[in-house]
# Entry
Amino acid sequence: MSKKSSRISGFHTLSVADRVSKTLEFAGMSDEQDAAMFLNTGNLPADLADRLIENAVGTMNIPVGIATNMLIDGRDYLVPMATEESSVVAAVCNAGRQSYESGGFQTSMSGTCMIAQIQLVDITDPGNCRLSILERIEEIRAICNDCDPVLVKHGGGFRDLEVRIIESAHGPMVITHLIVDTRDAMGANAVNTMAETLAPHIESWTGGRVYLRILSNLADRRLARARCVWKADAIGGPDVRDGIVRAYEFALMDPYRAATHNKGIMNGVSAVVMATGNDTRAVEAGAHAYAARKGWYSSLSHWEVTASGDLAGSIELPMAVGLIGGATKLHPMARASLRIMDIQSAEQLARVIAAVGLAQNFSALKALATEGVQKGHMSLHSQNIALMAGAEGDEIAAVAQRLVDLGTVRIDVAEQELLKLRSKS
Ligand code: NAD
# Structure
């Protein structure tokens, strides 16, 4: 057998179809069905996929579900969520239903500013450098705003300057933060351009050398917040309420628990971020960095009992999402998701996402503090297992139900049950 090489010169210049042929040939997958599967790009046309990323050969379809019952700032929302995980959408619907009568979610936002960092090294007098940068704030404002007149026209642009000194193994570094209001854009490209344009000026003002010029995903000038009160009666009484608070206290103090607690929050957050074509990694990096801001990794949410004995939940996390740029404006499903929610600004979207994160957290904690997550999760998951076992059409529901009745959601059991079902018919 001849040795396969991944050195494929000019792969990027090929058409999507030719890239698919080359890839299948490499993998020894010559089946026409395989090629057809790659070329069926669903609701993202192949030429658009090819423009969004490099070397595109297809798309990866993920289900989009609608979270119902979400009352946010007095308005009803149907929230599109893109996720491959069962129970995630149901969790938000349930949390929304149980808070609907008590007024749903209230949200707010700290602003829409992003931070770009410029790393200056090879300096002996960091204190002096710091002030020589700070005193040029008006010059810096003009340089930054000149980079993006469109952003300025939309009410955004340079807002403030921070300069920090960080000690390193190679001596002090002076880190300049450009604080830029990016309005309805996530803003990565906008602030990166400003940082790159400003870098040579900082070198000439200080005599130092600039290395990195890039945004920070710890977008703590762009915090989305949501809060909600669940009536103790509506959620199963004081035991359930107290169980949720105890679960939160565990996550507050223990990073092993906090990682899973926050993963649940991000199940909701990332699904809406994805459905609107935003950058899931940017939001996830921001959330986890923010969760560790106290010096230890902790819960993104906060749970407490109100004076009237009800359960109050709140959440605060960086939410760098936009309506302009990246895939948000280009992906047909992202555009449809924004239309379903009638989103008019990046701030409105960020606030909805924070509410979804809190809703998700409520349902996860409630399940954990009562029956455990497996009961609810497994009844949904049983359908995936039935599918994996080869069930088709009506067989899927029948096998899934058998797995739930048996209390054993396992692939081997699903295969046995499928055989039994088929032998009967
Ligand atoms: P972009 O550059 O495509 O669009 C933003 C621009 O649109 C603004 O700079 C402005 O000129 C214009 N604009 C028009 N109307 C506007 C309005 N109402 N409000 C604000 N701006 C308006 O996109 P972006 O948001 O700068 O960058 C987002 C992309 O950058 C995402 O795809 C992200 O994945 C990617 N990215 C992320 C990182 C990171 O997170 N570390 C790094 C690099 C790139």
